[in-house]
Amino acid sequence: MTDSPAIVIDALSLGYGSASVLDTLSLSIPRGKITVLAGPNGCGKSTLLRAIRRLHKPSDGRILLETTDIAKLGERMLARQIGLLAQSPSAPDDMTVEELVRLGRYPHQSMLQPWSPDDTRAFEAAMAGTGVAHLRHRHLGSLSGGQLQRVWIAMVLAQETEIVCLDEPVNHLDMSHQLDCLDLVRQLNSAFGRTIVLVLHDLNLAARYADQLVFLRDGAVAATGKPEELMTQELIARVFDVDAMIITDPAYGRPLCIPLNTRERVIGA
């Protein structure tokens, strides 16, 4: 594992129609680390994640996978390099766990060889690694929220991409399943060497699991660094408009944010 960047985002601008979302944003994603994107609603976190997977075409700038512009890669090649689990994914309730996870192997298949021994190996490893192998014949509609989220992560893991992008993977999960899911993400990073790019709203979870924390605001990078560097009263106030107390987590040694009150914002400013 090296400190060389897995992804370089260079002066990226992107929007929806005439509305600008990302404005000349530049960022480096380190290889083999967990990078967490955090910021207020509408700051461009999910849009940036989708741009990395080339689901949105930028109006300016570029995204480099190592030294290659992702705009020059074929779709299957890109899908072999970058996996994305979107926010609140959906699939038919009568689909089985096995059927969904097998879809992760699609980028590796061809008309001449629709399913190979490598596909079987990757599929079984993803099922075992996420702890869902015993659910393989269950229908998705019969699973709990925590089980279903593990199955979706298994599908992304089955792609065997070096880079895994997860958009709010703990959204709508209770506290126990949030920790369970993020512990699994950490395991994918440490055991399999995956580069993880993760969108989280909960700052304390972000500080606990991130190697690199990125604060976004108004479509630009407000600050980037280790959680210990970014979780300060000044930055929390500037990025989130919240006065907060920052203490050290006695169990994990990471910073903890205790919100005190919101700062008054001038509408239209």
How would you summarize this macromolecular structure in one to three sentences?
This protein is an alpha/beta fold and 269 residues long. 32% of the residues lie in helices and 29% in strands. It has nine helices and twelve strands.
Describe this structure in words.
- This protein is of the alpha/beta class and 269 residues long.
- The chain has one domain: 3-Layer(aba) Sandwich (Rossmann fold), CATH 3.40.50.
- The protein has nine helices and twelve strands.
- It has a six-stranded mixed β-sheet, with helices on both faces.
- Strand 7, helix 6 and strand 8 form a beta-alpha-beta unit.
- Helix 4 packs antiparallel against helix 5 and helix 5 packs parallel to helix 6.
- The termini are far apart.
- The model has no long low-confidence stretch (mean pLDDT 91).
- It is found in: Cell membrane.
- This is ABC transporter ATP-binding protein.
What are the main properties of this structure?
269 residues, Rossmann fold, 6-stranded mixed β-sheet, ion transport, nucleotide-binding
Q: Outline the low-pLDDT stretches.
A: none
Helix content: 25-40%
Q: Based on helices, strands and strand pairing, what is the structural class?
A: alpha/beta
The largest sheet, given as strand count, sense and whether it forms a barrel, is: 6 strands, mixed
The name of the CATH architecture is 3-Layer(aba) Sandwich
The CATH superfamily turns out to be P-loop containing nucleotide triphosphate hydrolases
Biggest sheet, spatial arrangement of strands: 6-7-8-3-9-10
Cα gyration radius (Å):
19 Å
Count of the separate structural domains: 1
* pLDDT averaged over residues: 91
Give the DSSP E fraction (strand runs of 2 or more residues).
25-35%
Number of helices: 9
Q: Looking at the structure, what is the overall shape? A: globular
CATH class type: Alpha Beta
| Cα distance spanning the termini | 44 Å
Topology as a string of helices (H) and strands (E): EEEHEEHEHHHEHEHEEHHEE
Compute the number of strand runs. Answer: 12
